[in-house]
Design brief:
Layout (H helix, E strand, L loop, with lengths): L9 E7 L4 H5 L4 H10 L8 E5 L5 E7 L3 H6 L3 H6 L5 E6 L3 H14 L14 E3 L7 H19 L7 H15 L2 E6 L2 H4 L3 H7 L7 E7 L5 E6 L1 E5 L8 H4 L7 H16 L4 E11 L11 E3 L5 E3 L7 H13 L5 E6 L3 H7 L4 E5 L2 H13 L4 E4 L16 E2 L8 H10 L7 E5 L3 E2 L9 E2 L4 H12 L2
Parallel strand pairs: 1-3, 1-4, 4-5, 8-10, 8-13, 9-10, 12-16, 13-17, 14-15
Antiparallel strand pairs: 2-3, 6-7, 7-10, 11-12, 14-17, 18-19
Length: 457
């Protein structure tokens, strides 16, 4: 995942649309026009055309961007074509601004391979860092996304709470951040009762990871759900629902990837990352339906479904993060299936009470091709999470508004001036340009782009 060496011999690659291809091809030789026709190239989205030279190599190449309809429906069109190009370094022309940045990032992301367990064939074409973009920034963002994907794709056998801690420690060491970890019964001693309750049945101890970086600027706290595997607990999931539960730590993977971006780019802020890392397992000491748990904040929580565990561990972490009153606190979690029903796998729903933050994020999401969608903290639904027996219910009956009620639950544990919550999926169900099937970051790049406006950087 890198750009081609700047001094590498490069093939000119021109991006063309369906609309302007006719004009472009009129400037080609008759032989080249005939070759393009034989190849069926008409500037369609993701199409590629290579024109041979007299030595049997490639004289120049074209990549199709399609029409306006195709561009409105598909992100990273250049990446779709890049994967089809023959081996070589390519110098991309015909794009500028945000479109050029998207193309460069998409090319890098398309080259991602998860090869921990099996060697994968590499993408043959590389891109010369285009002039007019901040190549170092794009590369840093791509590497943050790679970290997120690697963490999510790694199975729980090799990505339990200790392994997630090791990944956080490695990241902290890379960027000179400090890190503290509270493990096992230490969670009870330091008053993280719900993190302990959810993770105590596993043979790998639960823990709270606390990483800090930066000494000046506004304060940002990222909280990521780190459920390394979710059986559902005693309310055990059916096998069809358990198959992808290695990705239930996708929130933690996403905030670690975002943290890499923030630290690698040297943003002038004080960053804190909190990750409650647990496995929701089944054993004699597992927490039970109808148990009432105490929380760090002092609120009691009735357990009506042990499979609604992510909000429990996040609650203690959000309370802890709020105690320092950061300027902005953000949680990211693969929290509810209701969010997928609402917006599908491609959109990252987010919640905030602050319209300016929502606007900044929505604008940034379009600019960096990282789609998000605002959902409401709908106050009339607060009564749905109040069971009467305890202060809060972790899984209201009825099935309505599941993502909203989960977000409202989390908000009860935040005492900070501004809070934003992402209910992400963290998984690409089928391959798409720049996004192979498997783990994927969502919302991180949009948030990174919006932070300067949100925090006045």
């Amino acid at each position: 995942m890198n750009f081609a060496a700047p001094d590498a011999p490069a093939i000119t690659l021109e991006a063309v649309t369906s609309a302007n291809w006719s004009a472009v091809q009129n400037g080609l030789t008759e032989n080249a026009q005939a070759w393009a026709k034989v190849q069926g190239f008409d500037g369609g989205a993701g199409q590629v055309l290579t024109l041979p030279n007299t030595d049997g190599g490639i004289e120049r190449a074209f990549i199709g961007m399609g029409d306006q309809k195709a561009q409105s429906r598909q992100r990273f069109i250049v990446a779709a074509g890049a994967a089809k190009l023959p081996e070589g370094a390519y110098d991309l022309k015909g794009l500028e601004g945000a479109a050029l940045e998207e193309a460069a990032l998409g090319w890098l992301l398309a080259s991602y391979r998860f090869d921990r367990y099996r060697k994968q064939s590499e993408m043959k074409a590389t891109l010369v860092a285009p002039k007019g973009i901040d190549a170092d920034r794009i590369l840093t963002i791509a590497k943050g996304e790679r970290l997120t994907r690697d963490l999510i794709n790694t199975p729980a056998s090799d990505m339990g709470p200790p392994d997630l801690e090791a990944a956080a420690r490695k990241l902290a060491e890379e960027h000179g951040a400090s890190i503290e970890v509270t493990v096992g019964d230490g969670l009870l001693e330091k008053n993280f009762p719900m993190v302990h309750a959810v993770g105590r049945a596993a043979n790998r101890a639960p823990r709270l990871i606390d990483m800090r970086w930066g000494s000046e600027g506004p304060t940002l706290t990222l909280v990521g759900k780190g459920v390394c595997f979710d059986t559902g607990g005693l309310n055990i999931k059916p096998s069809s629902s358990m198959g992808l539960m290695k990705k239930d730590m996708g929130g933690s993977a996403t905030v670690l990837g975002l943290a890499h971006m923030i630290m690698g780019l040297g943003l002038k802020l004080r960053l804190r990352v909190l990750i409650p890392a647990v496995e929701n397992s089944i054993a004699g000491n597992a927490f039970r339906p109808q148990d009432i748990l105490n929380s760090r904040k002092g609120l009691t929580v009735e357990i009506n479904n042990t499979d609604a565990e992510g909000r429990l561990v996040l609650a203690d972490a959000l309370t802890y993060g709020s105690e320092e009153n950061p300027d902005l606190i953000v949680s990211m979690a693969t929290l509810t299936g209701a969010a997928r029903v609402a917006v599908g796998p491609d959109l990252a729903p987010f919640y905030t009470d602050h319209d300016d933050d929502a606007s900044a994020l929505a604008i940034a999401a379009v600019q960096v091709a990282d789609p998000v969608w605002r959902m409401p903290f709908h106050n009339p639904y607060e009564a749905m999470i109040e069971p009467g027996v305890a202060d809060l219910d972790n899984a209201p009956k009825g099935g309505f508004a599941g993502s909203i009620t989960a977000a409202l639950f989390l908000r009860r544990f935040v005492d900070a001036p501004r809070y934003m919550h992402f209910d992400i999926y963290g998984w690409q169900p089928s391959a798409a340009p720049a996004r192979p099937q498997g783990g994927v970051g969502q919302g991180a790049r949009a948030l990174l782009e919006a932070l300067p406006k949100m925090l006045g950087l």
